[in-house]
Write the structure tokens for this entry.
Amino acid sequence: MGQNTLLSAVFLVVTAFSASASTFFSTFPDAKYPAEKRIHFTPFDLITAVDGDKLSVLPVSGKLTQHSFELPDSYTLDLVINNYLAQLKKLNAEIVFQCQQEACGDPYVLRDQLAPRITVDTSYPGAYVAAKLTGSSGDVYSVIYAFHREDRYTKVQLVTLETIPEPLDLIVANPAFLQQTPQEVEIKDRRSEDSQDSADHPLLGRMPGSFISRYKQTNFTQVPVIVGMSAAGYQTQPLDAKLTEIRYRMPEEYSLFEISSNYAAAANKLAAESVFHCKGKACGDDAELIKSMGLHQDDNTDEWQDYQLFKLSRPGGDVYFDIYAQGRYDGTPADTTVRVMELSALKDDRVVIDLDALTKAITQSGKATLEGLLFDYDSDQMLSESKTVLEVLASYLKQYPKLDFYVVGHTDDKGHNRYNQSLSQRRAAAVIKQLTEQYQIPASQLAAHGNGEYSPVASNANEAGQRLNRRVELVLRSDKK
């Protein structure tokens, strides 16, 4: 197709449209990859002058239609722009501004001004036209931008803006709402999802809709709590206490502020003393905060965190409780951990085994229960008071180096049986590790075995029996298999 024929075809098609038509310009023959976007109402700046890297603009607003397409390399910038100018002249359009290549000023300034409606590729020459027309319902503005990538294509982008009053009646307000009493968001109860054998602490309840994802109780341990912050870091205080640690998964309907405020209100009802409180970035790095408290919890974001520590006095010993609430990056709540620390002294009368009793038990029955060998709750971590038992056990094994033994772990029947077997195995292995590493007992003298819940010595129907069933035994081997 020759150039004269091409121009005639373009004129015939383009002149069939007017400024009030839904599509202002027709598309060129050979156009590829057409795209269209319509915006109900938006502000838009027309460039009216260029002075180096300075642009003058005319703010307009209205209904916007955006078109783009590509033309073959044979369509030059002059050919494309002149076609549009010819049609604009026929429509008696006012050319607000036009420029081409260097006359359009700094290409990077032009790119930033036209984005995001028009894409300027600063590597290739471009041309810009802004025109004003009069439509039947008001002014219409047309912006044409094209750039030519030699030996590849010419890209054309069009913006048509029909000026209309800003449509501010799209949303209807309901005055009756102002007369209503605020209604709480309905939150589903999820107690059925609580971790097995877990429960709220009697001191503090839970936020409705939350559920327990982690539960831990330790009869006696040392708990670090945060009592202050300084330039040097967190100021912590170790508490010797019975620990109940509960991690709650919170519904997304709550805000972190609501969660923390409710726990603070509960503490106030108990007349608890506030020891320390921080929130957000004032709490510092959340990973370091979690580490300082000795929590096993994922870090989320510094901005959405809240830590509170309270103290209660009672005749039987002071009680501390702290609450660490977290939120995700978008502000929705994540986990909230509640710890209750009941201060108490170490009960050191639980170790009843001595070397004579151990020797007698092995001689008479071939096994001995290692009374006083204590572990952290749901863990293979031995408590510090187990050291005396380990020393007695090591002395006995060194006296009888030619005897071989099983170290057998037992549990109560709470929890899944496979988990109990694994826990008992790990506890038996932990005893052997201590004996071999700390007391130089040959590893070949001992073998770990986990018996789980399958050999109780008392009824599991009550706490007293369960406590007796949670034990570690030393069992004499008659052969070496």
About this structure: The chain has three domains: 3-162, 191-343, 355-477. Confidence is low (pLDDT under 50) at residues 1-21. The longest strand covers residues 32-51.
